[in-house]
Amino acid sequence: MSGSPKYSSVGVGALYAQREAAERRRRAEERRARERRRAAERERLAREAERRRAAAARREAEVAARRAAERTAQEARVRAGQARADERALDEVRGLLAEARRSGERADLGSLEGELTGLRLRAARGEPLGGAVEELRGRIVDRGPAETGKRTEDRTATLAAFVRRLAATGQDGPALDADGHRACTDLLEQLREAGAPGREVRFEALLGTVEHALTRHTVTVTEALAAAERAARTARERAAADEAERVRNETAAAEREAAAEKAVETALAEAAERLGVVREAAEAVVAAAAELGDPGLAGEIGDALRAVTGALAGRSAAGARTAVADLERRLPDAEGRLDELELAYERRRDLVEALRDAMTGEGFAFEGGEDDGGSFRLHFSRPTGAMYETTVATGDDGAPVLVYHVDGEPDTTFRAEQGEAVCDTTEALLERVHLALGGDDGFVAGELTWDGKPPDRRAEPLPGGTVRWWTNP
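User: That's the sequence. What structure does it adopt?
Assistant: Structure tokens below.
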């Protein structure tokens, strides 16, 4: 029998159980107090985060207001620039009217001057004038000298007036209406020839033709200039609008990107702060669970902790929030499980002390021991040379289990044919050890068993404190 492992489950005595229950209640209250402190710290962090978000929102509103003011100022500058351009154009129109009045080309300029005054009033009110100035300029240029076709007494002056009207188109005339400019030039040359003495009839006949050609040419050039100006202005306005839209879009995109980046930074910072509340406790659970031989608990909390740090390193705000919430949820239960592991460890450690005292009290010599991931192995020897290796482990139900490996013990068996009761020294010795484990104030060992033990074996005390073992026939 000494060669096969022997097993005995171990319970705790009533007084030991009471002390352990009190310790379990104390640890539970400590866990609740820790969780209350963590909850209070998380609430404080949440309030600080809300204050930071409110301050950031105020800053963003201030920035938006400042940008709106800058846009308003820029628009005002654009309008002021356009107003100055309109004013210069109005001054040019006024100069044309003054020149026309001084030259005496027309006497009925009052309506045109009235329109000029109206445009000036509109400009003073800040209204955009658009193409009204160019339209008025064209009408002034288009109006020829008064009664040119009827005045023949001063043919030289009439010719000079026609020449000035053609010259007024400048370089734009040949460029914008080449055929009309050529026709006017040819007609003016004919009119000059008809100005010779004796050709009054020819001169009078040409006046209407020249007037018509000059008017047509002037209107064509003026309209072309106005159209070009309108097209250029439209292009400038469109380009300015496109540029403004591009700037607005780029600014808005940059603001959105900055806001999104800021939101990520804020969320990551908040997750990191929440991790700081539980990280030390989580790492302690991982280390203690691994040391106490529960790799499942160590792996569960270790994985949850790495999920948070990985999300933070990967700058995943949503992942970090989810992972830290999962770690916060798991930690209280993990700490409760760890407390049970530590209580079981302390129970095994106390059992080791009680077992060592009991075995040395029975004459064993303690040869040393080791802690193997929460299980203890103890080595004893007897004066006979027998060696006992005792393992204090934990059974599937969480209760301590004693496992003995005996080497060198001269056990004997019961010989029924001689009618003798022979003492099994190993079993009797271990039973005495078990009785010395403390009872109500310590540990209560169960039946010692081994593979192949007869189911009907029982023990009776013998004189001298020995034990006689019997089997039923």
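Residues 200-291 form the longest helix (92 residues).
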